[in-house]
Amino acid sequence: MAIRVNLDVMMAKRKISLGDLASRVGITPANLSILKTEKAKAVRFGTLDALCRELSCTPGDILEYRDDGERE
Amino acid sequence: MWNKQKSLIASLVMTGTLLVLIAAAIFLLPTLVRAYAQMTGIEYESFKWLVVALYVSALPGIVCCVCLMHLLLNIRRDEVFVKKNATLLRVLSWCCFFVGAEYLVFGARWYISLVLLAFAALFFGLILRVIKNVFEKAILLQEENDYTV
N or C: which end of chain B has fewer CB within 10 A? Predict the structure, then answer.
């Protein structure tokens, strides 16, 4: 998949840990880790909304389309 | 009050009971057939291939009971749409196909009434195969759901 998740970059910029962000967003650390490690197959708008709110960013800061020729 | 948990336990108990009955039948079959032969006045020798057919189908019967127990225990652990359950359903369907084929052979040669049982077993194997296909689709949907954040 060409969608890249730059959640770790935003978390480092805002100096927030995985567990902390997960509890603020309202999902489990395991679920957030699935997103961070690009294993997620779908993201709910509600989750994306909460992430952007807590990280004070836009969806484009977290999700990036980078077509490097890899296909699933 | 009846609920899903009690229903699951009832299914486990019934499966366990069936397993015990099959195990008992393995030991008691010749005695039971001999008693039936005496009761009906038919020679025991006429039933010898029926006894063989029943013994051959006892092993898939035991395998089916064990698979059903595993399936029910997985469901009890909330592991429903998982690959191992699809495998168990596949094994169940193949056991039914084996018994169906076996009864067709014995029925065609010696006991025509076994042919009816054969078709019932083959049909049931087919139903289980379709259920397995449904489970495989459900597993994909479950995975999609599990990886939705």
Answer: N
Residue B10 has pLDDT above 70, yes or no: yes
Residues of B with CB under 8 A from a CB of A: 143-144, 147-149
- Range in A29-43, B31-45, B133-147 the model is least confident about: B31-45
CB A35 within 8 A of CB A63: no
Name the amino acid, one letter, at A29.
Answer: P
Residues in chain B: 149
If you measure CA to CA, which chain A residue comes closest to B142?
A41
Per-residue model confidence as pLDDT tens digits over A13-72: 999 999 999 999 999 999 999 999 999 999 999 999 999 999 999 999 999 998 876 555
pLDDT digits (tens, 9 = 90+) for A5-14: 999 999 999 9
Burial (CB count <10 Å: 0-12, 13-18, 19+), residue B142:
middle
Nearest CA in chain A to B148: A42
Query: Could you tell me the CA-to-CA distances from A55 to A9, B49, B87, B146 in Å, in that order?
Result: 11, 76, 44, 24
**Tokens, residue A38:** 């690009």
B147 and A43: CB-CB below 8 Å?
Answer: no
Residues of chain B by 3-state class (helix, strand, coil), percent to 5: 90, 0, 10
